[in-house]
From TrEMBL, chain A:
Domain ABC transmembrane type-1 intervals: 70-260
Name of the protein in question: Sugar ABC transporter permease
GO cellular component: plasma membrane
Keywords for this protein: Cell membrane, Membrane, Transmembrane, Transmembrane helix, Transport
Pfam family of the protein (one): BPD_transp_1
UniProt KW Lyase keyword: no
Automatic annotation (TrEMBL), chain B:
Protein name: Sugar ABC transporter substrate-binding protein
Protein species of origin: Mesorhizobium mediterraneum
Cellular component terms per the entry's GO annotation: periplasmic space
Similarity-based family: Belongs to the bacterial solute-binding protein 1 family.
Compartments, record wording: Periplasm
Transmembrane domains' residue ranges: none
Coiled coil residues, start to end: none
Residues annotated as signal peptide: 1-19
Amino acid sequence: MARAVSTQHKTIATAAAWIVALLVFFPILYTIITSFKSEQEAIQGFNLFPSGTTESYTAVEAQSGYFKFFLNSVFLSVGSTILALLVAIPAAWSMAFSPGKWTKDILMWMLSTKMMPAVAVLFPIYLIFRDTGLLDSRIGLMIMLMLINLPIVVWMLYTYFREIPGEILEAARMDGASLWNEIVYVLTPMAVPGIASTMLLNIILAWNEAFWTIRLTTTEAAPLTAFISSFSSPQGLFWAKLSAASTLAIAPILIMGWFSQKQLVRGLTFGAVK
Amino acid sequence: MKLRTLTLGLLSASAFAFAAHAESITIATVNNGDMVRMQKLTDDFTAKNPDIQLQWVTLEENVLRERVTTDIATKGGQYDVMTIGTYEVPIWAKQSWLLPLDKLGDDYDVKDIIPAIAGGLSVDGTLYAAPFYGESSFVMYRKDLMEKAGLTMPDAPTWDFIKQAADKMTDRASGVNGVCLRGKAGWGENMAFLTAMSNSFGARWFDENWKPQFDQPEWKNTLQFYVDLMKANGPEGASSNGFNENLALFQQGKCGMWIDATVAASFVSDPKNSTVADKVGYALAPDNGLGKRGNWLWAWSLAIPAGTQKADAAQKFVSWATSKAYAELVASKEGWANVPPGTRTSLYNNPEYQKAAPFAKMTLDSINAADPTHPTVKPVPYVGVQFVAIPEFQGLGTTVGQLFSAALAGQTSVDDALKQAQDAATATMTEGGYIQ
């Protein structure tokens, strides 16, 4: 029997949810507010009501062209996600539906690579990129982003695939479906919410990745993370400009997240409630 | 139709030939006001050198340092010109990572570079980086508050005077702190200030045999004075304040005095951003009568990595950006006050500059008061005023900076911080083979 929820409880829960959401979102909101202040206003302490000037945006655009960085970010995040899915879907399929003796260990090992600090492998990776001519190339960085996010993608897909009854795939096989048909026509459509949320999460992760994207690029392949970094100054207070640069950098992914929040939440909680 | 095709073909061929001929050099730099201005003025360079194109990479200081170090150590060849400081130049030049600057042109006038700055950028008399802007540190103070306290700031104050003035100026009820100093941990943050300060107290990082000196009374006097001064007169949460935080406090009128980089003078005296612009006075960094002042010396400089394939074009650019002509170009477009300071003697002899920048003389005097080759009262085996020019210093300086920052925050005592600093320094120097 469903538990009766009183209106009072509902109101309290809603208010609490709003407060938590506001707390989580506040730093981003304040960044956006600060971007519409003048530099002097920005350093004058806490103030939620900006004068509304857009001088910081004009200055940011004049100092470095936003569009090139933006295109690189789109290319890198979408490209690395597609690459990661191409590798991860078959990998997760085999681990979910025909696990071997070492499957669990392999999964743990994959995840363990995420535990190592990235800087520990900076030099080897840098040398490999230098020798293969991949420094400051979009392709090189796309492969790098695919590799660092691959463990998470495989894990997420593995969890979703495990929720799908193996009998359905068996039935498909009985009907004469080949392995390819089984993955493409039976498994993938059933796992669409899972794949979609994995894809969205991976795009967000790749978009925000700021270690490798700054260190392996100079001018050609530099994405928005490098764009923001160029506005941070050790000598001089450019908080409004930095906020404008940050707002420009997060706006696309924020808008994308807003429109796809249903899929994201559905995907992330998929299988959480039995 | 045929003619049009032919013309189009010729045009695209010539465009291709031009593009193939034009050489592109990549310059790594930081987002400081003077650097941003240089990027805006590059049309002048490309007009004079149509066969060279410029690509800029602007990065946050620490990221830039890490990026260019990785690139130069691996000979990655990503950059043709790098913006580096006086800390890196002697170390990198000794490793043969930098090209000597010997083709700067006949009209470059190397001798015009301020000797203290040129000394910090040379190894065995050869210049390895050209200074783009130089800075020292000095005292910036509120003339109105000083007057209210019934005191007159001398041109060359002592630490005792600073303490006396800070005590009188502090008025926490109205939000005024007598003195604002760096407290944020980092070799280029609080340790830049404290190392320079310790020089004036007679302290040194290492003796002639590279033995750390934190167990000596001079360091105890330095740190105790600093912690006591800040506890009595410093702003709240001072242990997390760096240059930018103190700049914000000073601009809002919350500091009576601020001892920091000379480059700050142009910010605090700018009426657009500073509420105290017309009330700021300047004085040399304090001393203790031992012959050394507590001021540092730094120059953001342009250097050419040994791995570049475009050394000639890179040198042309370095020569342009650090020339007298560049100073005149900035002056003609943005006024003399915006010319990069602290690199050339001729700038300080220029009456127009003296008029536009009231802090000019004090900046030059401060720079001249620092000697990177003899930074301390007692002899030392290293070069550097507010740093020790050895590769281990970045890590060690930051570790010691964290200990001293903790002492300022009251998390540890001055004695404990010094003892731990001594242990950390001894371990690092033994590991590095300096102490046998």
